[in-house]
Each structure stands twice: as C-alpha cells, then as structure tokens.
Amino acid sequence: MTDTGDRRPLASRNTRWAGAIARWLAARTITPNQISQASMVAAALAGGTFVLAGQSTGSLRIVCLLLAILFCQLRLLCNLFDGMVAVEGGKGAPDGPFWNEFPDRVADLLIFAGAGYGIGMPGLGWAAGAFAVLTAYVRELGRATGQPSDFSGPMAKQHRMAAITAAAAISILEPLWGGHNQVLMAALWIVAVGALLTAVRRSRTLILRLKEAGKQ
C-alpha cells in the first residue's frame, strides 16, 4: 500500500494496542507485503479447520471451530497491520497495492468455500466467496474510474468476518439442541445474499457518481 488516503475506516486503527504492534512490526524486517501474504495462510487454515469441523463431532469439532475463529481473526489482523506498517510505518512498496488487494480476494474464497465444504454445501460456500469478491470488484472499479472507494455494507469485509466468526462460536453450542452445521449454513446464506446486495448497492452508487461527474 503506497497511498495514505481512501482507506477503509477502522476504529481499531486508532487504538493503542494496534499502534504499539504496528510500530513493533515496522521496526523489524517484516514488510507490509509479507503481512498481506500471511493473511492468505491464515485464511487457508481457517478454511481447512471449517472443513474438519463440519466432518467432526464432540471435542474435536469444538477445537476445529475455535481454531477457525482464531484464524479468521488473524486474517483480519493481517489486513489491519499491513496497511499500518505500510502507511504509518513508512514501509510501503511499489507493488503494495497488488498485495493489499489480491490476498483479500483469495482469503474470502478460502474461508467461505471451506465452510461450505465443511457443511456439505460447497456451492453455497463458493457463492458466498464469489459475491464477496464481487463487492471488492465494484469498489475497485469505482477507484479505477476516479471515484472514491465505497466501503458500504450491508456485507463489507468486516461484516462478513463478523458473521462467519459469530456463526462458528454459536455452532459450538449446537449439540445442546441437537443441531449440526445449521448455524454455519445460515451464516453462509446471510453472507451470500448480503454480499450480493452490497455489490448491487455499490454498483448503483457508482453509476450515480459517474452520471454526476459527467454533468460537471
């Protein structure tokens, strides 16, 4: 990441703990691009543990779900710190914009496809991942046409991760009512439909902005 503007608004970016960790990372030989690349590893591990969780029962399933939650949050932390180390830490690279975006698209697909395979509904998982990628495509299309990035929801990245994380946490309790994977299935539907609506909303906003720009 090389530019300082047009960034996703994140309250966590202004917290003391985030600033301290970002400064620690910036003082090391760790680069923002490496942090971005690490997010794909975290996402692959999250997807893998979702697959195992869907095929497991008892304590093993609980461990897999807890690991999935951990890796999903680690993915988000990588997304936070790559930008902070690049911008606030002054370690941005010329190829930073590629590594700032590409790993996120891979991460979405790995996590949601993994959850889909885990519950025996791979098509639903791929749909959630595909619509998640579509929301980012519309945002970047806006930037390519000279418009500001549109980070609106209802299912932006932080919302998608919150939904799948909450579903994994609730799924731990499913044996209490005799359920198995229904919560994750519902979450994938929510993400898929929500991401589709987000892409439509962002597309409509972009079209209106382009029309307004054309009148000037």
Structure description:
The chain is built from seven helices and no strands. The protein is mostly helical and 216 residues long. It has a single domain (11-215), classed as Four Helix Bundle (Hemerythrin (Met), subunit A). Helix 3 (58-87) runs antiparallel to helix 4, helix 3 packs antiparallel against helix 6 and helix 6 (157-171) runs antiparallel to helix 7 (182-215). The longest helix has 34 residues, at 182-215.
Summarize the model shown.
The protein is 74% helix and 0% strand.
Strand content: under 5%
Question: Helix and strand string, N-terminal first?
Answer: HHHHHHH
CATH homology superfamily name:
CDP-alcohol phosphotransferase transmembrane (TM) domain
CATH fold-level topology: Four Helix Bundle (Hemerythrin (Met), subunit A)
Any guess at the CATH architecture? Answer: Up-down Bundle
CATH class: Mainly Alpha
User: Roughly how much helix do the residues carry, as a percent range?
Assistant: over 70%
Overall mean pLDDT: 92
